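REVIEWER CHECKLIST
Item 1: Sequence provided? yes
Item 2: Single chain? yes
Item 3: Sequence as submitted:
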Amino acid sequence: WSSGLLIFLLGFGLAPIYLKEQLTTMPEWFERRFGPRCRLLLAVVSIAAYVLTKISASLYAGAVLFEVIQGISMWVSVPIVLALTALYAASGGLAAVMYTDVVQSIVFLVGGFLGLCFALSEAGGPAGIAKMLDASGLSYFTATLRPATGEQHAWTGLLIGQPIASLWYWCVDQVIVQRVFSAKNIDHAQAGCTLAGYLKILPPFLMVIPGIIARCFFEECQLTGGLSRPEWCETDLSDGQHANKAYPLLMIKTFPDGLRGLMVVSMVLAMMSSLDSVFNCTSTIFTTDIYVRFCNPSASARRQVWVGRMVTVIAAALGMAWLPMIAGSSSGLYLATQSVMTHLSPTLVAVFFLGLVWPRTNGYGAMSGMLGGFALGVGRYILTHFAACGADDWASFSCMDFNHMAIVIFSFALTLAVLVSFATERLLSDVAAPIEDPPAASVEDQTLSPARRRQQDFVADRDPIVQQRLLASGLLLLAVMLVLCVGFGYADNPSRGHGVTISGGMLAIASVAGFAVLANTWMCVAGCWTPAGAREHKARGGEQCTGTLS
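Item 4: Structure as written out by the authors:
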């Protein structure tokens, strides 16, 4: 749910900047702001992250589905899915990806809602789920906030560290922002982001709750010694490796034939939707930001297409090669992929937003921050595979929850970039044409400086009615997501001998009150409601307030 807050930031804070600059890829922005070396580094890291997380994770999810349903080996099902997805992703480009995503999302939503309704019916509704969770000591499953000193999913990590890492995925990563780049205008971009934000309300209900129901059925079988729901004792869903099979098992063991077929189709389409987006942006980044920019600037369009197709094939092969690492993870698919991204993305977020808000950030500082942050993140990720952690080691460097580690990596990269920028500022002023930094005019154009805000005429001719409706929808989205993030309350893990709980209703009321204050402050800063803003509005000939951070 916190992703809805970040999608709002993408649509109403960053989309005006992206569209005005007419970007093709995000590494292109890094070159305009910091220089070519940062562009190359970002392109390489992005492609590596796509292979290790997005491509391999989607392939493994499909392999688990086919294994549970048909008993097909991972090495048989994965090549088939790859061939079908890569065929239209490589031949049709982003247009084919977006059109097929629309159809696939409709099928997935219909199947997801039907699956949720049937699963709830089998479990006896919300009351039945709560009863089974209490009986098995898993009542804390429904709480969104956990103790700050917990081994996993502490509220400090989820509310601070996870959003830092997710900022890259939702606001800067090519997989998501390529949709914004393709928008006809700012209204289309903001409307699409608003719709996407509201759709993000659904995944916990369509996917997480059915998974919890599957776990409840397993626990019920265990508690009764196999007398109740004996078919659910076959797979240990309390184990991280087998927990990935929860939803497919629910489909096979409880859904009727017609619904089971629809759910299989919807899940396969969802997996292919993720794959085609990643394939498209991987080929785009390599072709545009590496091959054409640094290797063959005069490459013809035909040659670029073939290079992109070859990169798609290579990325798919590398994703398959990484599958055994995910399959061998004891923490499950989601945590395995999130751990990788959380050790990489905070560095990129720190450098990006520092360059966006602080004009004095230079290429040397950005490059140092990226290299230092990546070194810290990769080193710590490798260390976690050799560390033996206990319940009391939650604050140690090697055993710290990866969401807490995201805060450490972000702070380190940010500090290093600032210090190096300060240290090299005088050096750069003495050099006539620094090789790392772009011209000052380009730097000014890529930051949120007051001068750039005054010169921003990209959104001046927008329809004020449409603009106000979009902004109102966005603010409502923020409020809804904030309530959902904290509305299920705080609970300690009863299995550790604790039972501390805080009402989700009280947290929600406090959060909405705080949000109202922040929203009012933000609107005043934007110049929409203050007397000074009204005078400026009149002085500028009646131009409407943009309602954006830019």
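Item 5: Key structural point noted by reviewer: The CA atoms of residues 145 and 499 lie 13 Å apart.
Item 6: Recommendation: ____
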